[in-house]
Amino acid sequence: MTLADAHAAVAWVLIVSNGLVGLWVVSAHRLASARSPLMWWAVGVAWVIVFVEVLLGVAVQRVNGVSAPALHALYGFSALIAVGIVYSYAKQMPDRRYLLYGLGSLFIMGLGIREMFLHG
């Protein structure tokens, strides 16, 4: 498996994990029964995958000597920035924390999907 293959595979993991986590956390806003410590671990894992994906993308460029297609890096770094923004606002919005994290994860999923449609 090449770095480019790993980058493509992890992109799917990013999309699926952030989508599932996003739905779980948004549902936890209304359903107290959906809330658990495992949910926060799942959010953490899904967001670590964002960092792994960006690092793989950078590695593909460095090792293969290629440049990213137009807007490709923008979507990747936007996902990183989204993680930081959501995390930084969590303390300021304790009553909407579940919505913030859930919608943030769904936004990250959307960035991944958009990138797949742009560049395959």
How would you classify the quaternary structure?
single chain
CATH topology name, in short, is Four Helix Bundle (Hemerythrin (Met), subunit A)
CATH class category name: Mainly Alpha
Poorly predicted regions are none
Please count the helical segments. Answer: 4
Rounded mean pLDDT score: 94
Compute the number of structural domains.
1
Number of E-type strands: 0
Distance between the termini: 18 Å
> What is the correct CATH architecture?
Up-down Bundle
* Approximate strand percentage: under 5%
Structural class: mainly alpha
Percent helix among the residues? over 70%
The SSE string, one letter per element, is: HHHH
- Give the CA-based shape: elongated
Question: Care to describe what's here?
Answer:
The protein is an all-alpha fold and 120 residues long. It has a single domain, classed as Four Helix Bundle (Hemerythrin (Met), subunit A), CATH 1.20.120. The chain is 81% helix and 0% strand. The protein contains four helices and no strands. It has helices spanning 3-30, 37-64, 72-89, 97-119. It is elongated, with a radius of gyration of 15 Å.
Descriptive labels:
Four Helix Bundle (Hemerythrin (Met), subunit A); mainly alpha; 81% helix; 4 helices
